[in-house]
């Protein structure tokens, strides 16, 4: 398993999907469950841990999968591995096998924990194509494509934006218990962005940072209690980075008239507490890759990995729905341009080595809460 170091594809292969996906039917209006006349389903989705309708990673990926299928008259079905947040590699493999045996031509698998099961399934079903969201390449297996994102970019934008908007007491609640690479990159980018904005403003910012109670990506009373304690003692906004833990953070924020930063998809529609969201194109990426199976161009991507960031228009903040009052769209666009040009460099390595993302930082004080 050669994690992530295969060929990185150019933007030309995927840029066209961004506009088409955004202008099409609202995925929320497409049924999640359909009945195939012959009992087969051409397009399949295997969920990550957590709920299908998590208003975040699973749901965002699924929206791209079912939207492509709906628009192109393909049958589709989702599969959730047995045993929920305790699912094993065997449970994930069984879900993939069920999809392949039900006639899937392409199976989209969400989350880095799918890797072992996916490699086994792809080997046993060489005629089925596999799309590995938040994954890596298997150069020897041409029926797999890995699609990942530079979460440190949108995490950076979120941290920078809220500090520029006047927030000085921040929080980060991460999913995966400090072992999920995507969440780690989000968190490390968030600290960097907050630090750079604070440095420009000549101020100091405090950040509470934790992986506690987020390991299963599920809401919990314990996490809500922890977040309530943060808000009660002055935290103004928390970056909720872990799927369904969002509901625990929002519940705490609502009780204290405080704020939340969403993740993966635009979560402003879910709560008035959401000031902005750190976005990555999971729906767009899955839509694009599934299309490659049916338009005859899969060979362009099979066996490779795609890593998408700001230069690919694949990460960012939702300027049409954010409720930031001081930080402007023009300032945001100027910052994006600096990142794209390399004038602003965002570290994408340190978080992989240290889930607590230690600095040193010039203008933030980070309190690591276990």
Can you describe what's shown?
The structure is a single chain. This protein is α/β, with parallel strands linked by helices. It has 2 domains: 11-149 and 281-312, Response regulator (Rossmann fold); 151-280 and 314-369, Rossmann fold (3-Layer(aba) Sandwich). 36% of the residues lie in helices and 18% in strands. The protein has a 7-stranded mixed sheet with strand order 12-10-9-8-6-7-13, with helices on both faces. A 6-stranded parallel sheet has the order 2-1-3-4-5-11, sandwiched between helices. The chain is globular and about 60 Å long.
Instruction: Give me the secondary-structure category.
Output: alpha/beta
> CATH topology of the largest domain, what is it called?
Rossmann fold
Strand content: 15-25%
Largest sheet: 7 strands, mixed
> From the 3D coordinates, which CATH architecture of the largest domain would you assign?
3-Layer(aba) Sandwich
Tally of strands: 13
Mind telling me the CATH class of the largest domain? Alpha Beta
CATH superfamily of the largest domain: Response regulator
**Number of structural units classed as domains:** 2
**Residue windows where pLDDT falls under 50 for at least 5 positions:** 1-20
């Amino acid at each position: 398993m050669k994690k992530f170091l295969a060929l990185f594809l150019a933007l030309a292969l995927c840029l066209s999907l961004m506009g088409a996906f955004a202008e099409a039917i609202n995925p929320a209006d497409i049924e999640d469950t359909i009945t195939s006349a012959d009992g087969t389903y051409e397009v399949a989705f295997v969920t990550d841990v957590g709920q299908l309708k998590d208003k975040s990673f699973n749901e965002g990926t699924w929206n791209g999968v079912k939207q492509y299928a709906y628009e192109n008259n393909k049958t589709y079905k989702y599969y959730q591995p047995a045993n929920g947040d305790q699912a094993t590699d065997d449970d994930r493999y069984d879900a993939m096998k069920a999809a392949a045996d039900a006639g899937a031509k392409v199976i989209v698998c969400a989350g880095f924990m799918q890797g072992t099961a996916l490699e086994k399934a792809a080997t046993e079903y060489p005629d089925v194509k596999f799309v590995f969201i938040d994954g890596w390449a298997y150069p020897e297996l041409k029926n797999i494509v890995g699609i990942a994102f530079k979460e440190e970019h949108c995490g950076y934008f979120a941290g920078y934006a809220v500090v520029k908007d006047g927030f000085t007491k921040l929080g980060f609640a991460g999913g995966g218990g400090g072992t999920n690479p995507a969440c780690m990159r989000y968190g490390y980018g968030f600290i960097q962005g907050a630090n750079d904005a604070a440095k420009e403003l000549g101020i100091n910012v405090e950040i509470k940072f934790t992986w506690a109670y987020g390991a299963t990506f599920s809401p919990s009373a314990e996490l809500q209690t922890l977040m309530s304690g943060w808000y009660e003692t002055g935290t103004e906004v928390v970056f909720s980075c872990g799927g369904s833990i969002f509901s625990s953070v929002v519940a705490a924020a609502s009780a204290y008239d405080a704020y939340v930063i969403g993740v993966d998809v635009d979560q402003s529609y879910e709560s008035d507490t959401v000031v902005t969201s750190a976005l990555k194109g999971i729906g767009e990426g899955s839509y694009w890759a599934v299309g490659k199976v049916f338009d005859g161009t899969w060979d362009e991507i099979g066996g490779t990995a795609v890593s998408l960031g700001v230069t690919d228009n694949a990460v960012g903040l939702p300027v049409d729905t954010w409720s930031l009052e001081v930080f402007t769209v023009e300032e945001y666009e100027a910052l994006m341009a600096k990142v794209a040009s390399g004038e602003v460099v965002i570290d994408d390595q340190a978080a992989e080595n240290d889930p607590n993302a230690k600095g040193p930082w010039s203008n933030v004080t980070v309190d690591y809460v276990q």
